[in-house]
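Why predict the complex rather than its parts? Because the way molecules touch one another can change local conformation, and only a joint prediction can capture that. The input here totals 235 residues.
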Amino acid sequence: GAVVSQHPSRVICKSGTSVKIECRSLDFQATTMFWYRQFPKQSLMLMATSNEGSKATYEQGVEKDKFLINHASLTLSTLTVTSAHPEDSSFYICSARDTPYELGLYTGELFFGEGSRLTVL
Amino acid sequence: AQSVAQPEDQVNVAEGNPLTVKCTYSVSGNPYLFWYVQYPNRGLQFLLKYITGDNLVKGSYGFEAEFNKSQTSFHLKKPSALVSDSALYFCAVRATTGRRALTFGSGTRLQVQP
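Output of the joint prediction:
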């Protein structure tokens, strides 16, 4: 299947600093990527949908000013956690699909990155 | 709104025995259904999907799942469990129209004992 690379896999930062997580589709173009957050022993919660060349669509309750998403190219989306606090510590996972959304014919699965564990001290 | 229920937090099974991980869903219209597996501190790996057609879907690593429309279920099965199957399993659903993002269940931890 298609490969999604996520970096860094682990990051530790001090409270108040910003952290950027990258999500790359390695062998396909991804017009849409999704960012999920996973708390320990819990399911994945969709944070936002990242659309190439346009603003991200955030889920209800997700602070768009805290979680900045940029999808500048067809193979790269970034999530920046701004002014991070300990409660932002979590496992962040990106995913992408390899069929353009605009075709409206998408039936395939999502491909996931390996995840990024953020620890804010 | 679409939702997924995985009623069991954990399933324990002996190696060599059949396993079932349960999943029920709620979605407007016809569903697309997926199973993913997650190993510790890793992303999700795709196992199988139901889009249309045969209700019994075969996927990776010997797993299969049966779509039951009347019971709105999509249970994951394997005839003979391996210790290496021990992991966290997620069922996911999306509608064929409208919202395109996947909605995940709460996950079921499968523990296969030697």
